[in-house]
Amino acid sequence: MNNLAVNLKLIRKKRWNMSQERFAELLNSSRSKINSYENGGIEPSIEFMIRLQGLTGISIRDIFYSSIPLEDIPQAPLEVPDKDIVNEDLINYEIENITELVDYDQKIKKRFRNIEERITDLEGLLKPPADQE
């Protein structure tokens, strides 16, 4: 199964505990399309992916190509256009959502620092020794 299919199931089922039907409503899609996406039958439209990115805060690239850790997925959609679509226990999520966004922001900043350090290390390896310049 491809990363996209695994990540969609992880977001929908494991993290948000939503049925395919509710997930489809949230993303302006259909249950059959969600099923096809999760089974790797078809790939979603860019509009679907942009909407999913907005709801998760996770880049389209990561959703398609990375194995997303469960803790990097917000516990509920970041934008909730219609509370009836989301599980009842998520209605009081707003305050927790702010804390989670701050935590997520800190994780992302830490990842960028790690990437910048790796780039600096790699650049150091690519430089010729001082006596060869």
Task: Characterise this structure.
The chain has helices spanning 3-15, 20-26, 31-38, 46-56, 60-65, 94-126. Helix 2 (20-26) crosses helix 3 (31-38). It has 133 residues and is mostly helical. The longest helix has 33 residues, at 94-126. Mean pLDDT is 81; it is low at 82-95.
Q: Main beta sheet: strand number and arrangement?
A: none
Low-confidence stretches: 82-95
Radius of gyration: 19 Å
Q: DSSP helix count?
A: 6
Structural class: mainly alpha
List its salient traits.
133 residues; 6 helices
What's the SSE blueprint?
Elements: H1 3-15, H2 20-26, H3 31-38, H4 46-56, H5 60-65, H6 94-126
Short synopsis of the structure:
By secondary structure, this protein is mainly α. The chain contains 6 helices and no strands.
